[in-house]
Amino acid sequence: MQDRQKNAPPEARNVVNFLRNKAGMKTRPGIVNGQRADYFKGSAAIKAVLSPEYAKLKNVPAVASEEEAERMLHGLLPYAFYLKVERGAVPAAKDKDQAARRPLQVVQMQMFDREGYFVWLFEGSQLLQKLAGLGLIAVLLAAVMFPLWPMFLRRGVYYLSLGVLGLFGLLMVIAVIRLIFWVITIVVAPPGIWIFPNLFADVGVVESFIPLWAWDVPPPKKKLKRTKKKGKKAVVDGDAPQPDETADADVETATATSTAVDPAVTTKAANAEDAAPAADAEVAASAAYDDIN
After folding, report:
1. What is the four-CA torsion angle of 153, 157, 159, 160, rounded to 10 degrees?
2. Are the C-beta atoms of 231 and 244 separated by less than 8 Å?
């Protein structure tokens, strides 16, 4: 299986990397041969390769329709990046907070279709995970071997920790002082004054201390402007009718005139109107039958 994935052309690997790491496809956890694995639905993969993000990629097969997307994704099956599976029954969950994982069985006939389910056998690049693991091990070893550090390093860490604790304590003192000052000003000069109003706001370090003070006034509420559609305006008593209303009146007059002149046309139109709902119902029933099948 690993050999098949290594023999895949660069275009196929680019598509798989996009689907696995960048497309944001919805995946579900399952169990394959006793091991946890993620699986996805075929329609999700087709939607991903038809997205604008896929169109911006380079060195990938061009896809313009769902049929082309299905053929391209079917061509990736021989490389065993993913395989078609059948889902088993949902087992009873042992933990209420954790959903039970469905058992998955790889089918013998491998064909890509939008209604099928496919299990991921490709984990992507593991370089970042390996580097993160090595970094964590290095930090733990450095912390454990602190007594063996040179004296200048231990002294530097000591002063650095004092500086961090001093900054944290200064922040707490400023928070208490500004709270006391606000309580005093809310009684003496309502609505109150905040010192460093952006101290705990989601802004940069410098912006947290700008401005120096501000009144405790809530921000104004945004008013939603309602747009009026043309032809939907109400007519005030005594005003002239709108052009749209005049046009509607002319159409009604013409319709009434044509009905009075030619009754046969009216009869045919009525029969056509009666037949239209029946035709629509027949089309809807046919579509529903196709969806069920």
Report:
1. 130
2. yes
Decide if pLDDT at 243 tops 60: no
Q: How far apart are CA 37 and CA 97, in angstroms?
A: 19
Chain mean position to CA 69: 22
Closest CA to 14 of 122, 128, 119, 130: 122
Per-residue b or e along 141-167, where b marks 16 or more CB atoms closer than 10 Å to that residue's CB: eeeeeeeeeeeeeeeeeeeeeeeeeee
Residue 66 pLDDT greater than 50, yes or no: yes
Q: Which amino acid would we find at residue 169?
A: G
| 96 in Cβ contact with 25 (< 8 Å) | no
pLDDT for 35-56, tens place per residue?
899 999 999 999 999 999 999 9
Contact 90, 102 (CB under 8 A): yes
The tokens of 86 are what? 């059948």
Question: Tokens representing 94?
Answer: 């042992």
Q: List Cβ neighbours of 239 (8 Å cut-off, separation of 6 or more).
A: none
pLDDT computed for residue 273 by the predictor: 46
Q: For 173-187, what is the mean pLDDT?
A: 93
Bridge partners for 83 per DSSP:
119
Span 190-201, pLDDT tens digits = 888 999 988 888
How much is the pTM?
A: 0.48
CA-angle at 292, arms to 287 and 293, nearest 5°: 95
Domain assignments of the chain as residue spans, ordered by start: 1-124, 149-215
195: helix, strand or coil: strand
Q: What's the CATH number for 1-124?
A: 1.10.10.10
How many residues are present in the chain?
Answer: 293
Residue with tokens 């009684």: 187
Is a pLDDT exceeding 90 seen at residue 98? no
Q: How many CB atoms lie within 10 A of CB 61?
A: 19
Residue among 56, 28, 60 at smallest CA distance from 44: 28
